[in-house]
């Protein structure tokens, strides 16, 4: 286990360089996350014979991705960044990848911000194209849960969102401290496990929107569990006592919202 525990001491987060630009494994993993989400969603559309035109879904992908990127970045600035007011008064800096003229990339993304951006973009697309929001969301969440795995692996490669100190034999050293590989816990709990569940029940759903809302509930539960092993964001720490993190708080609200919507949507479907 020694090699595994010391993986960060030998692993280079930079995959290769394009001139002066360093291409990180983090970026590659996020590209794979997007591609896998699209491929998986399209495969299930074809395999399950879901009645949606390919050009409509292709157009939706662009809307959703733009919403996710904008929401993730803005969400981080609003919920996690300590320089919120600076970005709000200098909005052109939000997506500026250069620091003092040197390319540094864009860091700081929020999952819950991405969800909000996704919902807004999806709503606008569905309203414009007269498509059911829940119908599209049911398709999207299967792909999202698959792609999510690569996103968390990217966090692991980038040595960020580290776990709490531990003495378990599969822990990894971050500096001189042995920590939980919490990013990989999240990849399994919030990605693989949810993907398997959604795939298993997709043909047994009883109303449109069931998969999307179930995803929200399952993700929230998985995230709260994973937060137990994840070090709180250094700029925030615990937001209450020595146990409640921002991720737990946001996931709790998200879970409650999805449960309420699940009950309402199911009842409406039963009546109609």
From TrEMBL:
Pathway: Protein modification; lipoprotein biosynthesis (diacylglyceryl transfer). Its EC number is 2.5.1.145. Signal peptide: none annotated. Catalyzes the transfer of the diacylglyceryl group from phosphatidylglycerol to the sulfhydryl group of the N-terminal cysteine of a prolipoprotein, the first step in the formation of mature lipoproteins. Belongs to the Lgt family. It comes from Malaciobacter mytili LMG 24559. Pfam families: LGT. Keywords: Cell membrane, Membrane, Transferase, Transmembrane, Transmembrane helix. InterPro entries: Lgt. It is a multi-pass membrane protein. Its main location: membrane. It is found in: Cell membrane. One of its GO terms (molecular function) is phosphatidylglycerol-prolipoprotein diacylglyceryl transferase activity. GO terms for cellular component: plasma membrane. PANTHER family: PHOSPHATIDYLGLYCEROL--PROLIPOPROTEIN DIACYLGLYCERYL TRANSFERASE, PROLIPOPROTEIN DIACYLGLYCERYL TRANSFERASE. It is an enzyme of class 2 (transferase). The chain crosses the membrane at residues 23-45, 57-79, 102-126, 133-151, 184-201, 208-226, 238-264. One of its GO terms (biological process) is lipoprotein biosynthetic process. This is Phosphatidylglycerol--prolipoprotein diacylglyceryl transferase.
């Amino acid at each position: 286990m020694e090699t595994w525990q010391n993986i960060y001491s030998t692993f280079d987060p930079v995959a290769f360089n394009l001139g002066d630009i360093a291409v990180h494994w983090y970026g590659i993993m996020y590209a794979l996350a997007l591609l896998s989400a699209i491929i998986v969603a399209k495969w299930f559309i074809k395999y399950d014979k879901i009645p949606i035109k390919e050009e409509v879904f292709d157009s939706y992908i662009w809307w959703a991705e733009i919403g996710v990127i904008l929401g993730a970045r803005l969400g981080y600035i609003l919920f996690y960044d300590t320089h919120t007011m600076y970005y709000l008064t200098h909005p052109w800096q939000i997506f500026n990848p250069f620091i003092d003229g040197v390319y540094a990339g864009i860091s700081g993304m929020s999952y819950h911000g991405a969800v909000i951006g996704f919902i807004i973009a999806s709503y606008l697309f569905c309203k414009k194209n007269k498509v059911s929001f829940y119908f599209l969301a049911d398709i999207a969440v299967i792909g999202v849960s698959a792609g999510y795995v690569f996103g968390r692996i990217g966090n692991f490669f980038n040595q960020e969102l580290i776990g709490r100190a531990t003495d378990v034999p599969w822990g990894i050293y971050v500096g001189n401290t042995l920590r939980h590989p919490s990013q990989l816990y999240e990849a399994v709990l919030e990605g693989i496990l949810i993907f398997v569940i959604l795939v298993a029940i997709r043909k047994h759903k009883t109303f449109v929107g069931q998969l999307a809302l179930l995803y929200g509930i399952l993700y929230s539960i998985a995230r709260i569990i994973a937060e137990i092993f994840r070090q709180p964001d250094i700029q925030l720490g615990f937001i209450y006592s020595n146990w409640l993190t921002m991720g737990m708080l946001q996931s709790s609200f998200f879970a409650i919202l999805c449960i309420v919507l699940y009950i309402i949507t199911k009842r409406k479907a039963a009546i109609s």
